[in-house]
Design a protein that fits this description.
Two copies of one chain form a homodimer.
Chain A (H helix, E strand, L loop, with lengths): L1 E5 L3 H6 L5 E6 L22 H11 L19 H8 L6 E7 L8 E3 L15 H18 L5 E7 L3 H11 L17 H11 L7 H8 L2 H12 L3 E5 L3 H12 L7 E6 H4 L6 H8 L2 E5 L9 H4 L12 H10 L4 H19 L1
Parallel strand pairs in A: 2-3, 2-5, 3-4, 5-6, 6-7, 7-8
Antiparallel strand pairs in A: 1-8
Helix pairs in contact in A: 2-3, 3-13, 3-14, 4-7, 4-8, 5-6, 5-9, 8-9, 9-11
Chain lengths: ~350, ~350
């Protein structure tokens, strides 16, 4: 079941004629800070996660690494949920590389980006920031000729930290409000990194974004600014930061946008997406998923606060539900895919 | 008016519900051979032409060079005709970089290709060739979820020479049958280069393609092999070589394909697309354009055999006509765009 938290957007999904699933990938050096993210078995491996997620989404297998991305505990990437959910739809999957250190070995759209640095120093230079916005806007404009709805997901390790930095830098109250793929959100570390990053902040918007934002957020904002139809931002608290950037450039645009996420993000006691979405002024819906009856422990742990969201898993589940799939259909498909992965691994 | 020469394909265009215009760009070092191509003001500048064509198509202006690509005589790129024609349609323009030395400063789809070398030595290594085919096939598959027709154009200087080499290498009689953007087709030079390239040819198909083909031909073939609907190959004699590569991998696929070109290619006395299309077994249609009443000399010279085709100009004109535009509408739009260019230049 799809649930509406803020605003009303579900009707737009039901009446949409033609939409793609876009995955925007990027990396920053923030994910190399030990303990800040579990989106990879080690800090170094986090730079492979977005490319591997993109490959799994499109191909059903990874090429840049041997298996699917896992947490240090061995829990698989939410790309599994995304791919399983999208099997109930007939959508074109488009991968946009906004700036990933490792490139996926599948076709992808290049928007002239670069990987982000460590935001305690600088994420991106102004020229790259401007180029990502312009090219992504152009991409959004072109896609308007084919589609009336875009569903945009993301994969970027440590993306909640850059999201917190952007939100705080743009004047929102975001400290301790962003989510984490771990049940024990490393809030103190994130806060420390963000407060460091906020020192010596440029006063103009573009300067703030270049200093604090990751390339994914900038590209998602650009695509949305250029697109003429409705947009479902498929992600958790990070997408409130994308919406905040969109608002800086075109406040009216927020009317056409909702964040589509999972139950685990909305119900999370260690973060507060409802507060963030309210502050920014963007609609919020979620897929009321329940993985407690999965055959696999690595999937059942979603109910304990592991993973929660990522690679547009919530938005993809929402699409599956719009196309008639029930929670048990999605769970069965996720289980089947996970079983296949375990077989091919052995 | 759209005219059918071989097979019957026009009905597929009329019934198609949703299609993009895809421009596949690449370069090879064949274009550096003095006198072999006029697709650039000098041999060195030919490497900028595909990126500049892509930019003009999407943006209406070029970024990698100051003005639009021109011949050494100052005649502008056929991208002008393509952009003017597509203004009568509502299509998404997608640029695929199959291997261009200069990258366009707009969003493009990367299929993991590389620029081709000089075919007298070697165009591409086997690994790159395989990667371009696989990634392009995957792209074609994904696009099947959105579109029921693809229109695929090209921009690659000296592409008719690599096309002749591929056709001849795959067993067709192509010597002196490929076209040229110049009214005085440099046939002797092309023949010499091709005959040199055909020496020490590997015996297997992939080896032949790697040695002789440019990245554009390989990518166009791959996209077509992966796509599940109808395909209009928007180009001149080069597209018979793309069709020949498609045939090597899947002969049945040719039933879904037609080449869509211009009157100037079909009526050209210095080349023979009808013979090539017949030999390969692919349908052929053309836009019966007449530029004799253009306000600009650089456009009227199409009637004297200059330019003829390129950047999918023929296929784009066909689309304009399917959407109700008449020859005079297209000429007026081309003239207006050319006038704007001349104003912005001064």
């Amino acid at each position: 079941m799809i649930k509406e938290v803020l605003g009303s957007f579900i009707e737009n999904l039901k009446t949409a004629k033609n939409y793609p699933f876009i995955l925007v990938i990027a990396t920053t050096d923030v994910s190399l800070i030990p303990g800040i993210t579990v989106a990879g078995a080690s800090p170094e491996l986090t730079h492979f996660t977005p490319a591997a997620d993109a490959e799994f989404l499109v191909l059903g297998k990874c090429k840049v690494i041997n298996t699917v991305p896992i947490t240090p505990d061995g829990i698989p990437t939410p790309a599994l949920v995304t791919r399983a959910s999208l099997s109930f739809t007939k959508v074109t999957k488009l991968v946009v590389n906004a700036g990933s250190k490792i490139l996926p070995k599948i076709p992808f759209i290049d928007v002239g980006g670069k990987p982000g640095g460590d935001i305690r120093k600088y994420s991106l230079d102004l020229e790259t920031t401007q180029r990502i916005i312009e090219n992504s806007t152009l991409l959004g404009e072109e896609l308007s000729n084919t589609y009336d709805l875009l569903v945009i997901g993301e994969s970027i390790p440590a993306g909640t930290t850059t999201a917190m930095a952007v939100l705080q830098g743009l004047g929102y109250n975001a400290i301790d409000k962003v989510s984490s793929a771990s049940p024990t959100n490393p809030k103190e570390l994130k806060r420390k990194v963000v407060l460091d990053a906020l020192k010596n902040l440029p006063s103009n918007t573009l300067g703030k974004i270049a200093k604090l934002a990751d390339p994914m957020l900038i590209s998602v904002a650009g695509i949305s600014l250029g697109f003429k139809g409705k947009i479902l931002l498929a992600g958790g608290t990070q997408m409130t930061a994308a919406a905040a950037i969109i608002k800086e450039f075109n406040k009216e645009k927020l009317k056409d946008i909702a964040i589509g996420t999972t139950k685990w993000i909305v119900k999370d006691r260690c973060s507060d997406i409802i507060s963030l979405a309210k502050q920014v002024g963007v609609s919020l819906i979620y897929a009321d998923l329940d993985f407690s009856k999965s055959k696999h422990k690595g999937i059942r742990v979603y109910e304990e606060g592991y993973v929660k969201e990522g690679v547009g898993a919530g938005g993809a589940s929402i699409l599956a539900m719009v196309n008639g799939a029930k929670n048990e259909d999605i769970v069965r498909k996720v289980d089947d895919m996970y079983s296949e992965l375990l077989i091919s691994k052995n």
